[in-house]
Specification:
Blueprint (H helix, E strand, L loop, with lengths): L5 H24 L7 E8 L10 E4 L2 E11 L7 E8 L9 E6 L5 E6 L13 E2 L1 E3 L3 H31 L2 H55 L2 H23 L4 H7 L1 H23 L14
Length: about 300
């Protein structure tokens, strides 16, 4: 038996490498060539975002993959998408293939099964495709117009803000605010200076007053309040007794203050004395006689 030549070895290695590369690429795409599958076709007008190996879902479950695309030249504007589905899956007639893109622009196909149908598609049949608006379409239709309106309003607001910012009155207000801030800073500096220079003296005075109050409080504690109150009571009693005596007529002071006749006599005597003095001033010779030679 002849030995295998070098060229045959290289050919076998090359074929094995190509097979490995083919299966590896398909595996990376998510295509399992060793798993049996049934092939169906779906027709769409736009497959933007849909790629080979894009998933096909049923109620969120990945039941197949997109295998290839083919443009229908006999029916312009339509693209045939070949999908590979699990061979155990039976697709009922009335099922729709819904295609839409997400916010990132990635497309996907979702089969909406007609569970009430008793007839099924055969492999190779065409499933009706429905083009649904994707997230970007909704953004373009719903959000972008509103965003345009908001941006227009924002332009108006920014223009108003620019007008306010460039208003000379605002600059004047800022200058006044700066002056006020400077005044507050100066006042704060003066207060700080006063706190550092005058407050220690004030605190010392307060301490001295507090000390005096403390001494006064100690002195007040030493006072015999009971004895002082007793003396005040005794003085008040004596004053009351003296007042009672003055109100009675059984003593000289009482008679002097309460006897009407004595008061009238004193008044009469005082009046006579006044008249005597007046007459004495008017007629002194009647009462006093002077004689140089000793005669009366």
């Amino acid at each position: 038996m002849k030995s295998i030549t070098k060229e045959i070895k290289i050919g076998i290695i090359s074929i094995f490498t190509l097979l490995l590369l083919y299966f590896g690429i398909n595996y990376l795409k998510g295509i399992n060539l060793l798993k049996p599958a049934n092939y169906y076709y779906v027709v769409f007008e736009d497959v933007t975002g849909l790629t080979v190996s894009s998933p096909v879902y049923i109620n969120g479950y990945k039941a197949g993959l997109v295998r290839s695309f083919e443009y229908e030249y006999n029916n312009p504007g339509h693209i045939v998408v070949e999908v590979a589905m699990d061979d155990e899956l039976r697709i009922s007639k009335g099922t729709q293939a819904l295609f839409k893109t997400d916010l990132m622009g990635t497309g996907g196909i979702t089969l909406k099964l007609d569970l009430g149908s008793q007839s099924f598609f055969s492999p190779g049949d065409t499933i009706p495709g429905v083009q649904q608006p994707g997230m970007m379409d909704k953004v373009n239709q719903d959000i972008l117009p509103k965003l345009t309106i908001i941006m227009a309003r924002m332009d108006t607001v920014l223009a108003g803000m620019q007008k306010v910012v460039t208003n000379p009155a605002l600059n004047k207000s800022v200058d006044n605010l700066q002056q006020t801030t400077a005044g507050l800073s100066a006042a704060s500096a003066q207060i700080s200076k006063m706190m550092s220079n005058d407050m220690p003296q004030v605190i010392n005075h307060v301490k001295s007053i507090t000390s005096d109050f403390s001494v006064m409080s100690k002195n007040l504690k030493k006072i015999d309040y009971a004895s002082a109150v007793s003396k005040i009571d005794s003085t008040m009693l004596n004053l009351r007794m003296a007042t009672d005596k003055l109100n009675r007529t059984d003593n000289s002071m009482g008679l002097l203050l309460n006897d009407r006749s004595l008061f009238d006599s004193l008044s009469h005597t005082t009046g006579s004395a006044n008249r005597l003095l007046i007459d004495l001033k008017a007629n002194p010779k009647r009462y006093v006689h002077f004689s140089v030679f000793g005669k009366k």
